[in-house]
Amino acid sequence: MTDVIVVGDVMVDVSVDAGRLVPGGDVHGRVCLGPGGVGTNAAAWAAHEGAAVSLYGRVGDDLAGALLVEALGRRGVEARLAVDPEARTGTMLVVRHDGDRSMVADRGANARLSPDDLPGRLEARCVLVSGYLLFDPGSEPAARVALERADAEVVAVDAASWPLLDAYGPERFLEATAPATLLLANHREIEVLGDPAHLPYAAVCVKRGEQGAEALWSGSSYRCTVEPQNAPVDPTGAGDAFDGALLAALARGEEVPRALAAACRVGRSCAGRETTWPP
What are the angstrom distances between the C-alpha of 79 and each of 225, 252, 262? Predict the structure, then answer.
């Protein structure tokens, strides 16, 4: 049986680092291309932690999509990605200049993920569905169907983005994710949804960055702390890495405290790296 199935965004990250930008002119800088998106990040880290992983998503019929499929395969992820002949592969542009960071997201083919792109049954020990899919009208039906078709001991949903969650509406989110047994959220997202003890999930895990994480699980509470980072911290992708590691640990039968500790360790590792993928 598959350990972890992930249904989520598949993106290419383009990172630009420059001391400053000159409007209308050219400057030297560092430009890096790499895989990104909640789906690819979580799947790659789950595989890195030893899980057998399948990823469902949608890419364009282009070079970026082909490179992502190849990269996922090298990391041991079964990339069961639909190829869209009309839409481009999703891309995130991150520009760092003068100490600031600006981002531009193009969801591309991710916004066209369809229920037809998913099997009739998502059978695994753990299933993760990204909330980003819910927040786009084009992919919302696929996200709802993924949760309904999940056949797993743990059916997890990640709240993904507090501004998008707030715009979508807490009550609507709770209704859409009713089949889920585990909510994964950061501290901003949980503020939108309310007291974890009053949410209708069997388990709620709150990611608190450098302060670690806490979980309410079947009536018991757990907390995990992390050691401070010596190197500069970039939290991009750390929450996705946390999700993948947590589900990989649960899939191999770890108890909640050990699974939470593994997730915190991996999230910290990701935050201290230049890329969102494992080494």
Answer: 33, 21, 24
pTM score, whole prediction:
0.92
CB of 275 closer than 8 Å to CB of 246: no
Instruction: Kindly indicate the confidence band of residue 132, based on its pLDDT and cuts at 50, 70 and 90.
Output: very high
Rounded Cα distance between 268 and 208, Å, is 11
Domains recognised in the chain with CATH numbers: 4-10+38-57+115-271 (3.40.1190.20)
Q: DSSP states of 126-139 as a string?
A: EEEEEHHHHTSTTT
The pLDDT value given to residue 154: 98
Q: How far apart are CA 82 and CA 113, in angstroms?
A: 8
What CA–CA distance (Å, rounded) separates 139 from 130?
A: 11
Q: How confident is the model at residue 232 (pLDDT cuts 50, 70, 90)?
A: low
Continuous segment of H or E residues that includes residue 13: strand 11-18
